[in-house]
TrEMBL record:
<dbReference type="InterPro" id="IPR022567">
    <property type="entry name" value="DUF3459"/>
</dbReference>
<dbReference type="InterPro" id="IPR012768">
    <property type="entry name" value="Trehalose_TreZ"/>
</dbReference>
<dbReference type="InterPro" id="IPR044901">
    <property type="entry name" value="Trehalose_TreZ_E-set_sf"/>
</dbReference>
<comment type="pathway">
    <text>Glycan biosynthesis; trehalose biosynthesis.</text>
</comment>
<dbReference type="InterPro" id="IPR006047">
    <property type="entry name" value="GH13_cat_dom"/>
</dbReference>
<dbReference type="Pfam" id="PF00128">
    <property type="entry name" value="Alpha-amylase"/>
</dbReference>
<keyword id="KW-0326">Glycosidase</keyword>
<protein>
    <recommendedName>
        <fullName>Malto-oligosyltrehalose trehalohydrolase</fullName>
        <ecNumber>3.2.1.141</ecNumber>
    </recommendedName>
</protein>
<dbReference type="InterPro" id="IPR014756">
    <property type="entry name" value="Ig_E-set"/>
</dbReference>
<dbReference type="InterPro" id="IPR017853">
    <property type="entry name" value="GH"/>
</dbReference>
<comment type="similarity">
    <text>Belongs to the glycosyl hydrolase 13 family.</text>
</comment>
<keyword id="KW-0378">Hydrolase</keyword>
<feature type="domain" description="Glycosyl hydrolase family 13 catalytic">
    <location>
        <begin position="95"/>
        <end position="491"/>
    </location>
</feature>
<dbReference type="InterPro" id="IPR013783">
    <property type="entry name" value="Ig-like_fold"/>
</dbReference>
<keyword id="KW-0963">Cytoplasm</keyword>
<keyword id="KW-0119">Carbohydrate metabolism</keyword>
<dbReference type="Pfam" id="PF11941">
    <property type="entry name" value="DUF3459"/>
</dbReference>
Amino acid sequence: MRFSVWAPSADRVRVSVDAGVHEMTAGDGGWWHAEADGINYAFLLGDDDKPLPDPRSRWQPHGVHGESRVYDHGEFEWTDDAWHGRQLPGGVLYELHVGTFTEGGTFDAAIDRLDHLVDLGITHVELLPVNSFDGTAGWGYDGVLWGAVHEPYGGPDGFKRFVDAAHARGLAVVLDVVYNHLGPSGAYLDRFGPYFAGRNDWGPGLNLDGPGSDEVRRYVVDNALSWFRDFHVDALRLDAVHALLDRRAVHLLEQLAVEVETLSAALNRPLTLIAESDLNDPRLVTPRERGGYGLHAQWSDDFHHALHVKLTGETTGYYTDFAAQDAIERVLRGVFFHAGTWSSFRERTHGRPVDTRTVPGHRFLAYLQNHDQIGNRATGDRLSATVSPGRLACGAAILFCSPFTPMVFMGEEWAASTPWQFFASFPDPELAEAVRTGRRREFARHGWGESEVPDPMDPATVERSRLDWSEVEGPGHREMFELYRTLIRLRRERPELADPWLPELQVHESRTADWLVLRRGGLRLAVNFGAEAANPLVGEGAVLLAWGGAELHPMGMAELPPESFILVAS
């Protein structure tokens, strides 16, 4: 078997295969090669006898510090030959973390819950990162071997079984990938070559535009293509792309979009790229022929922030600006609240306007909750911990009646009572203590006491964050689930609700912002956020759905009870 590794500055490279050590031969472009028989292997650089895992490892059965293992993608028996993919427009996403989605915390355990997502009406299931990271439990954003699937979840075969099972149920699979940094434990890339260039808030960043960066960029792009080609994934969610520092004429994101488009044509199924970005820059989702990067969609935190402030009343930190009376109306009409306007949190102007005449709303993902907006709160509390069922329902109605692509965070659909907290499990005691201390210091600056911040290294923090599936049929929870299911069904059955063109949308809000009317073609959604009955002038029509006021007969002067909504068709 042929073993290869890129180590352009090394004067000697050896490969240890099943305990036998073999000298490697230098080839073109800084690559080294050797022929050997065996399945467990590691590389030794120079005269150092410390074995290092393969930077392009496909399998790490013994963790990120252990040997790599040979893995043949061709040996898995797929059953999804009839799967032709799903486009993102018209879709509804469901974000989940494999380790806490079920009691078992594995891919196989998650398969047993896929029918729940089908029943709900989900079209795309999005997994938080599943690549290898140090320890057994974690969010996945501290990965270091991007091509190897986390073994405690079920390894590469486990992930393929999950994708295969999802496709059998008509579900597309979205995978969260992190190319903007590497985790603090097991990041050996810089020992092989010039992979790193500086640091960002989370760890070492990649060398995307300096000497030797051609091969580093290939490392990223080849990894992305492998998820699509070898694991049959349908979409990638690219974490925090604003932290990808690239000064080349062709940005890494554009290069990635070009090569993914090429692979999509070869596979004859849609392949989707979704960015998370803090830039509020529509250039990410603008087609390349119009000067953009050509990605298919991006997350819209401004939508979340505007709805969060309306539902909770929180106005601290980055929520401050979203206390503006017209915040919801602005994000519904123009996507970004900060669109070349002043951001008090950043103390500068921020963002760029979206040309809503040419950029459809389905290119922006909207959500009431996600892993970041819950898990990065000190106690990991969900909206259901502080907001009434009525207000939750009002937020859900706006989400699913918006022109954007909606996304749900696991358990949100039944108002889960379990928190989702930050957790990790680094074996190194010093690193574990540094993470623990850093987490407490971070929230102390925001007024939280140390005793209020869960210990991220405590296994109990993971257990608290695990979904309790017995709740689904419980009082209050079942009603919320039925509401979510009905809203998703209506979005599928009524084309007006999935219409992505923002200029066609009409929004009317009261002066006090207690109520809002959203007009989608012949449909009108009236929402009363206030504590008193309101008269939003819904007009006559057939009631498709009502919450908190099912007895209403919408006339010109009908009143909505507090914390309720009604959806009417002409």
